[in-house]
Each structure stands twice: as C-alpha cells, then as structure tokens.
C-alpha cells in the first residue's frame, strides 16, 4: 500500500507552441502543460490550443494558460475557448485584477513572482488568501519568462515556508534543464516549471523531457525513503 506521505515533485512542461510539442508533452508524466498566450516566441492562440486538445486528449494533465498583463476580457475568452484548469498571471497583475478574474471564472489562478532578492517573497503577501498557487521565475530585461535564466535557488526555503504556512502550492521556474536540475533538486522544490530547457532546435524534446522526469522520480524515491 502506498504511504500517505509520499512526496511527488510536480512537473510543468511549458511553452508548447505546436501540435507536435503538445503531443510530445502529453506522452510524458508531467502534471501540468503550459501554453503562452502572451507576446513571446512561444505565443499561441486560444483557437490553436483548442484544436490540439480536441485532437489529442490531455489525459490526466492540467492545462495552464500563461498571460502577461493582458485584459480580463482576453483571459476570459481563452478560458471559454480552451479547457484551462489554471490561469498563470505572469506579469504585473495586481490584487484587484486577480480578484475580478476570480469572481468571473472558476479556474485556479496562479501568480508569478519574479525573484530579485530575499525581499521579493514579501511581494506575495497581498495575494495570499486569493491566489491558488504561485510560480517563482526570473525576469530578464523586459522578458517576463521563458528566458532560460535561473535565480539564486538558495532563496527557495523562503518560498517553501510561505507555501507551507498558507497551504498553497508553488513551482520554481527559470533556467531549469538537465544540467541545472542536479543543483536544484537538493532544495526539494514542490514543483518545477520548464520551457527552454526541454527544447532542442526550438521544439520540445521527448528525450529531454523523459530525462528530466527520470531525474525527478529518482530524487523523489530517495527523499521518500529517507
Ligand atoms: O516561455 C515563454 O516564452 C514565456 C514568455 C513570457 C512569459 C512567460 C513565458 N513562459 C512561462 C513559463 O512558465 C516558463 O516555463 C518559465 O518562464 C521558465 O522558462 P525557462 O527559463 O525557459 O525554462
């Protein structure tokens, strides 16, 4: 019988920007698949994603829409078009915006915090009690995500504490790939979120995704048997 306290690191494969990317990600054991509806080299439209999901069932995965400072009307349109489970607000959206969005939709709302220093964690405070989860990422210039750049992971315990105290999940994002994951796993983040690190020639690589999953599973096995 499985122990009740088995810990499973959540995995999100983000930035699926073609049917081929989506099909490759669906085959994995990831918990979440992400689609960037914001301006980006990975930008997709709600209509495109709706077509892919109609063609290939997402199995047991939760679908996450990524938005950066976009209108509430556009986000609600995306929710009506794609069976999204989560809206990830990846820009400078404030509490009023998130409360309005929550009032008009029944999806989970995650807020992204861009880590700068140890005080960044305080930026989460106003959102606690409203958001359903958060993602910690790294902003580079005016690029809000998908940069392949990581922040100082020594600060993860600060975010972990907020997550435990408020009983909300979080993912660590930014610059995670098959090499850097070795340095990240000792911090035992609750979940990881990857985009550039699972690409090869700008397409999702099944090989990289499988390797990432294997590394995470081995880490979980070690942690759970400690
Ligand atoms: O992936 C993008 O192009 C992107 C653009 C603008 C905002 C967010 C974006 N991605 C959202 C994600 O959740 C990524 O997984 C996260 O930023 C990590 O990206 P990476 O450093 O490339 O792994």
Automatic annotation (TrEMBL):
Transmembrane residue ranges: none
HAMAP family per the UniProt record, alphabetical: PRAI (MF_00135)
Reactions the enzyme catalyzes: N-(5-phospho-beta-D-ribosyl)anthranilate = 1-(2-carboxyphenylamino)-1-deoxy-D-ribulose 5-phosphate
Protein name: N-(5'-phosphoribosyl)anthranilate isomerase
Record carries keyword Isomerase: yes
Keywords assigned: Amino-acid biosynthesis, Aromatic amino acid biosynthesis, Isomerase, Tryptophan biosynthesis
Pathway given in the UniProt record: Amino-acid biosynthesis; L-tryptophan biosynthesis; L-tryptophan from chorismate: step 3/5
EC number(s) from the headed UniProt entry: 5.3.1.24
Pfam families per UniProt: PRAI
Source domain of life: Bacteria
Location of the N-(5'phosphoribosyl) anthranilate isomerase (PRAI) domain: 12-212
Similarity comment text for this entry: Belongs to the TrpF family.
Ribonucleoprotein as UniProt keyword: no
């Amino acid at each position: 019988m499985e122990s009740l306290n088995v810990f499973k690191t959540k995995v999100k494969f983000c930035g699926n920007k073609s049917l081929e990317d989506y099909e490759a990600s669906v085959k994995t054991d990831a918990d979440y698949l992400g689609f960037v509806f914001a301006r980006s080299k990975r930008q997709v439209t709600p209509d495109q994603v709706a077509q892919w999901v109609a063609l290939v069932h997402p199995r047991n995965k939760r679908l996450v829409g990524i938005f950066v400072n976009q209108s509430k009307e556009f986000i609600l349109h995306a929710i009506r078009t794609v069976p999204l489970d989560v809206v990830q607000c990846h820009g400078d959206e404030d509490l009023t915006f998130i409360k309005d969005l929550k009032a008009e939709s029944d999806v989970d709302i995650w807020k992204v915090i861009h880590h700068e220093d140890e005080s960044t964690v305080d930026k989460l405070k106003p959102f606690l009690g409203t958001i359903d989860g958060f993602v910690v990422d790294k902003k580079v210039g005016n690029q809000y995500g998908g940069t392949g750049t990581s922040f100082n992971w020594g600060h993860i315990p600060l975010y972990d504490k907020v997550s435990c105290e408020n009983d909300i999940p979080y993912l660590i994002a930014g610059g995670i790939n098959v090499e850097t994951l070795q340095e990240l796993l000792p911090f035992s983040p609750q979940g990881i979120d990857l985009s550039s690190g699972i690409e090869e020639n700008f397409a999702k690589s099944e090989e990289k995704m499988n390797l990432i999953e294997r590394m995470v599973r081995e880490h979980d096995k070690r942690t759970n048997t400690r």
